[in-house]
Amino acid sequence: MATSLPFPPSPSSSDPSDLHPGVRQQLMRPCSEGSLLLELRSSTEYSVRELGLAHPAEELPGTFAAPDAVGLALIVPGSVLHGDHPDLTVGRDVRAAQIVGADGSSCAVVQWSGRTVVDNEPGTGRLSDLLHRMLELPTPRCEISAAWYWAAVWLAEVLEPGPRCHEPPATPADILSWHPAIDPREITGLSLTGLERLLLQRHRDHTHLTGWNAIRSSAVAGWLEIGWCPPSVAQWLDSGSFGRWIGIDLPSPVELAEVSHHLLSPGCSQLVVALLVDLARRHGGDTPRINREQ
């Protein structure tokens, strides 16, 4: 087992001079050269792998750090989307680095125009997940509930014509019959209020039984097809990173509500929005508006 080496050496340090010299040197390269992966082997030694302009999430899943690596650094070009630093205006080109030590210590770095800022609480995201998994370290739990994933799966089935559903369902009973957790026999004779109550309860039950760990296990076994995530990559990810990577691409509740309003009958749309509102209240997210006077 390699000796762990925190980066920066002091967890409370935000002094750029405490960064690994390889990180400081490679941050100076122009953004046009694309992304770089640094394997840190001691306090001074390192190797560099050039990733080009492809996103690291397309190149690194399924790979591992060398056994003697004491840390990894991923340097990427980017531009500022938002922030509260007075010199980091929106649109400014920057070089950013995510650094993870073999002991799990981590920091993020932003460099622009000769200035370097170190953040010792870098949060979570794809870059951090990549480095943790390459070092065979666990990632934080996914804060996005799997309930949102199952809602998106259900609505994709009924809103997008396909081999099972050639056109959007016409009645509230029809749309509930496509939900993965509802037995069509439960629907018979229920009013719209009863259907809404059944939908909310069955969706909660389904999420409780099939969270991110169960979804990932299905992907590993090949029972669940996810375009960007073959079984080998699902195996490489852990439950936290797997859920986070899926959650990044999920449509917002407001978007789903708007699509259902335009494509579904008023009763069907009411059920969809009721579920989205319930999920937003329980798990966070933008709350769509319910229009019961359609």
State Rg.
Answer: 23 Å
Q: So what's the overall shape? A: elongated
* Secondary structure tally: strands: 6
Please describe the biggest sheet, giving its number of strands, its sense, and whether it closes into a barrel: 6 strands, antiparallel
Please provide a written account of the structure.
The chain has 294 residues and is of the alpha+beta class. The protein folds into 2 domains: 16-134, no CATH class; 146-283, no CATH class. It has 11 helices and 6 strands. The radius of gyration is 23 Å and the shape is elongated. The chain starts with 20 loop residues before the first helix and ends in an 11-residue tail after the last helix. The relative contact order is 0.11.
Task: Summarize this entry quickly.
This protein has 294 residues and is of the alpha+beta class. The protein is built from eleven helices and six strands.
What are the defining features of this structure?
11 helices, six-stranded antiparallel β-sheet, disordered N terminus, alpha+beta, about 290 residues
Layout of secondary structure:
Elements lengths: L20 H6 L8 E6 L5 E7 L3 H4 L11 E9 L13 E9 L4 E7 L2 E5 L6 H9 L11 H14 L12 H6 L14 H18 L2 H10 L9 H6 L2 H10 L4 H11 L2 H18 L11
Antiparallel strand pairs: 1-2, 1-3, 3-4, 4-5, 5-6
